[in-house]
Amino acid sequence: MSRNLLFCKWAITILLKLSESPKRPSELKKEINGISERILYNRLKILTDIGLIEKNSNNSYPLDVKYKLLDYNFVNDINEILYNLNLPVDRLIDVLSKKWVIDILEVLNNEVAPKEILARINGLKEKVLYERIKELEEIKMIERLVYNTRPITIKYRLTFYGRKALPTLRRAYHIILSK
Fold first, then answer.
1. What is the pLDDT of residue 1?
2. Element (H, E) at 68
3. Do 42 and 115 sit in the same domain of this protein?
4. Which of 137, 149, 170, 172 is the most exposed place for a label (fewest CB within 10 A)?
5. Mind giving me the DSSP string for 59-77?
6. Residue 114 preceded by cis peptide, ω within 30
7. What's the rounded Cα separation, in Å, for the pair 105 and 103?
């Protein structure tokens, strides 16, 4: 679960909402369509535990609990990725939460042929590689390069936005794996 937490549409949406201002859980529930109370509180607890948000309470009656974002830079970077790629949160999360995506993006810092990617990433199957490549091309994180040689050479590399997004995605995985 924790491996994909930051790449869960609810966690990202909560972070984006908290970037606007500190909010009570009831405010978040009203602003985030479709989130259940159980999932909301679960994500709030996990985001608090990993240090991205903070829970503030007045500890008196009537109880007033608000959650506040602690890492604005991280959320601004995610917002920039969404804006630059012109994607809804759900679509970006759908692609990035899949296994091997970050590994593939890391390899594609340079122009690389598919066979080289398979050789560099242990355990990655050819079918899965081509599925991930197709999805990453669709969201404009990578581009396909076709060279007019005999036989035709096909290589892939990160797009400009892919190169800009990689450090943020790398950081998200480090946050997840360190907790």
1. 39
2. strand 65-69
3. no
4. 149
5. -SSSP-EEEEES-HHHHHH
6. no
7. 5
